[in-house]
């Protein structure tokens, strides 16, 4: 079953009299439980595509169907509800709140939830233990390495038990050891049934996915199984 279907999706920006097509008619399908890398050079449109897949932005034209529902023209509040219910996000810069502990950062999605989270604190503790940070849950981000911060971010992304994890350059700020830890965690989550979609410019990281979608000048130019 398809989790995601894009049909002729375009994203256009206007800068003065100039029109820029960040996405120029992208059509693709991603099934449940897939492990997908989106790759392309800087300016290719891969991050724009990720923002649309994550309901962080809407297409200028075309259709985006998520879990059988066309979300292309939904209002901001409706998109936010989908993000909170069905999507977990991991960003290159971690996006942790600096004055909060690891545990408090993982608990943050509960603050925005439209439904109660049973045993929230216990679940957050279990997630931090799962990512190997049981002894670090009371540490703030400044007291942690980049790899540890990204593992906190992955635990936070899992807090609401989302259908899909969307990761934008999740290893971009990490050394090779930290990158391996993050990729191994994403593989583990995929093995547990999660759909994983991540953006990367690194061929070695992209090769870890089961499927690679390559973007160039706002178009899909290759879609291959590894």
From TrEMBL:
Q: Which UniProt keywords apply?
A: ATP-binding, Nucleotide-binding, Transport
- One of the Pfam families matching this protein, by short name: ABC_tran
Residues annotated as transmembrane: none
One MF term from GO for this chain?
ATP hydrolysis activity
Domain (ABC transporter) spans 4-225
Q: Name one GO cellular component term.
A: plasma membrane
InterPro entries cross-referenced by the UniProt entry: AAA+_ATPase, ABC_transporter-like_ATP-bd, ABC_transporter-like_CS, ABC_transpr_LolD-like, MacB-like_ATP-bd, P-loop_NTPase
What SUPFAM superfamilies does this protein map onto?
Answer: P-loop containing nucleoside triphosphate hydrolases
Q: Which family does it belong to?
A: Belongs to the ABC transporter superfamily. Macrolide exporter (TC 3.A.1.122) family.
List the protein's name. ABC transporter ATP-binding protein
Q: Per the UniProt entry, what species is this protein from, by scientific name? A: Candidatus Cryosericum septentrionale
